[in-house]
Amino acid sequence: MTHVGEHVTAVAPPYAQPAEDVAAALGTDLTRGLSSAEARARLERMGPNALSAARGPGPVRRFVRQIHSPLIYILLCAAAVTTVFGGYVDAGVIGAVVQLNAIIGYVQESRAQRALDALARLVPAEVTVVRDGATSRLPARDLVPGDEWRSPRGTGCPRTPGCGRRTRSKPTSPPSPASPFRCPRRRAR
After folding, report:
1. Burial zone of 94 (CB within 10 Å; 0-12 exposed, 13-18 middle, 19+ buried)
2. Which of 5, 28, 84, 120 is the right S-S partner for 23, CB 3.0 to 4.6 Å?
């Protein structure tokens, strides 16, 4: 928001502005796109279009987390009470069940994490961009602010910092120019 005297005026977000205004603000030519040199300079200055991989908890913390459950706490209390009253066999069985549950939970969580990591490496996102007046395919991580990209009908926006939404149109019916569900960086052809 911009404050002008005592009046507050709202600055429209990029997706609500005409494409020509956004292109001018980003220093982009709508017909030729960015030059390769400018795209390289922006990539070096701003970094890749990728989220940094968040480190998950280590193996010990992941195993201990399997025990943090109200049901497990009740079982541990039951094992302690059973031990106090001399039911060592029953307490041992309860303890074994808690350990087995923690081991199974740890193994399942580890496998799921490995599967997610493998999927992330398996599906590299690529986009079609206009640079130097020609279209070319490149990894989505090489997109920079000001790039003019094109996506096939029915696909959504690549996840860029300025574009976090997907289109809601069906592949057979493109969105109208006034549609609020158009991708902010998509322009009419």
Report:
1. buried
2. 28
